[in-house]
Amino acid sequence: MKVIHLSVECFPVAKVGGLADVVGALPKYQRELGIDASVIMPYFNRKFVQEHTFETVATGEFNQGSTLLTYEIIKESTDALGFPLYMVKIPNLLDREEIYCYADEADQWIAFQHAVLHYLKNHEVEVDVLHCHDHHVGLMPFLTRNSTDYKDLASIRTVFTVHNGQYQGWMPWTKGIILPAFDTWKWGLLDWDNLINPLATAIKCCDAYTTVSEGYLEELYQEANGLQHLFYDERGKAHGIVNGIDTAYWNPEIDNLIDENYSQLTVTHGKAENKIAFCSAYGLNPALPLVSYIGRFATEKGADILPRLFEQVLKQNAQQVNVFILGSGDAGIQAGIQQLADQYPRDVSVFFGYNEQLAHQVYASSDLLIMPSRVEPCGLNQLYALKYGTVPVVRKIGGLKDTVVDVREGGYGFLFDEVDADQGAETIGRAIQYLSGNDQLQKVRDKAMALDFSWNKSAKKYKELYNQLLKGHGA
User: Fold this and answer.
1) What domains lie within the chain, and their CATH numbers?
2) Where is the Glycosyl transferase family domain (predicted)?
3) Which of these, 130, 133, 135, 163, lies nearest to 242 by C-alpha position?
């Protein structure tokens, strides 16, 4: 079985969020199951590309509207990621450094999808399943069936994964002229509220769609930025499959990015040593509980409540708590976090931006990780935290409620109901009090680190879905 994953992100090539982590790991685990899985993504002139060798495997050209575009398909020569990686390079469109935020993004993603179609058809690439990730490649299920130039690809099964249904890739109908020629009687499959909506198109046209947790699938039926009725109407081909983590990369026993490796048996000593080194570097007190946040500064992540939440935590615990915040995003949120750090210089430390090694060190050093998300389709940070013996404090939403069980129910984390600074602070206080006894902390860490959130189980579920589609039984 040959499966090609299409995505604009893939760790460590180009990453903004969890999409990259999924696409950078799932194909590797699928190959261990005997699936011939690979990734095709746009070319980005970033560190990974500059440090690795690529070979050209195909070239071609096509018209995007009245513009003739030439493309090059390059392949990473050593399969360094554990699977074949292909990149699509198009001069002046797919040859840039940044992933997002260009004014002509719609043109970029249309060109990417058109180049992939042209490559698959004209180079007779064998593929059984196209696995498309998020709205950037949401037109592919429509185009393989309805584009007049690419109907040879109509037998390919298409799976579409919704990583975040809030972002849908809306574009005006003026962009319709630059799409590959299609059967105009089918224009309604592209339309939603008088716009071309790639996410809606994918849900209408794919053979099966998946979400990155079962909880998020149920939430999409209730609220999906205007598409909730569509998700519900197409529920017959829906599957909630929780994300996993790459345990070859996120593993405190072998992680070369942390100060001291440790296992479930040596977690107390290992985390203590990492915490001492970390706190020394960031001016914090290793004798105090360390509560951290890692992520984007976005209202979607609940980051706007962090300044007040952490101020409450510090006041309620007589400043016998340390706080570390790693992230970037909304300037207003960042300003509030900086103000908090200025107000409590001995208790709060921040790093604005993203640093992969630092993220690993935070997981290895922290006692608690807070995730007050408004929307969290799956969440990976809580899974990384659990693997490193860091106890998650999370809002009861989406994939967070699917993967974290409160200690009150015999679990290994702490949950709260609303995106509310007082609730979050109270729950952190409950966690600190509960874990203050060494025996209790060890028990919770033991439960957390014994969990299996690797890609093994999820990769098997995807294989079952692919087989189901290829046997013609529908979704």
Assistant:
1) 2-244+456-470 (3.40.50.2000), 267-452 (3.40.50.2000)
2) 287-432
3) 163
Answer for the pair 197, 169: CB distance below 8 angstroms, yes or no.
Answer: yes
Chain Cα centroid distance, residue 211: 11
- Stretch 312-329: mean pLDDT: 96
Closest by CA to 371, choosing from 323, 311, 419, 434, is 419
Q: 3-state class of 293 per DSSP? A: strand
Q: What is the pLDDT of residue 17?
A: 87
Q: How far apart are CA 33 and CA 381, in angstroms?
A: 26
Q: Report whether 321 contacts 361 (CB < 8 A).
A: no
Is residue 361 scored above 60 in pLDDT? yes
* Beta-bridge partners for 195: 192
Query: Using CA of residue 432, residue 434, residue 437, residue 439, what is the dihedral sign?
Result: negative
Of 69, 4, 54, whose CA–CA distance to 31 is shortest?
4
Rounded distance between C-alpha atoms, residue 58 and residue 395, angstroms: 47
DSSP one-letter string for 412-436: SBEEESSS-HHHHHHHHHHHHHHTT
Torsion of CA 76, 80, 82, 84, to 10 degrees: 0
Q: Residue 155: CA atoms inside 13 Å, Cβ hemisphere, count?
A: 7
15 marked as binding residue: yes
Provide the terminal-to-terminal Cα distance of the chain, rounded to the nearest Å.
17
Instruction: Report pLDDT digits (tens) over 153-164.
Output: 999 999 999 999
Would you give the distance in Å from CA 322 to the centre of its chain? 28
C-alpha pair distances (Å), 357 with each of 110, 194, 362: 34, 45, 9
How confident is the model over 365-369, as a mean pLDDT? 98
- Label residue 84 exposed, middle or buried (CB < 10 Å: 0-12, 13-18, 19+): middle
User: Under 8 Å CB-to-CB from 308, ≥6 apart: which residues?
Assistant: 421
- Across 95-108, b (16+ Cβ under 10 Å) vs e yields eeeebeeeeeebbb
474: its two tokens: 């529908």
Identify the residue whose tokens are 């974290």. 404
Confidence of residue 354 (pLDDT cuts 50, 70, 90): confident
Q: For the beta carbon of residue 417, count every other beta carbon within 10 angstroms.
A: 10
Q: How far apart are CA 48 and CA 260, in angstroms?
A: 26
DSSP sequence for 63-102: EETTEEEEEEEEEETT-TTSS-EEEEEBTTTB-BS-SS--
Answer yes or no: are the C-beta atoms of 267 and 449 closer than 8 Å.
yes
Lookup: tokens for 309? 């939440």
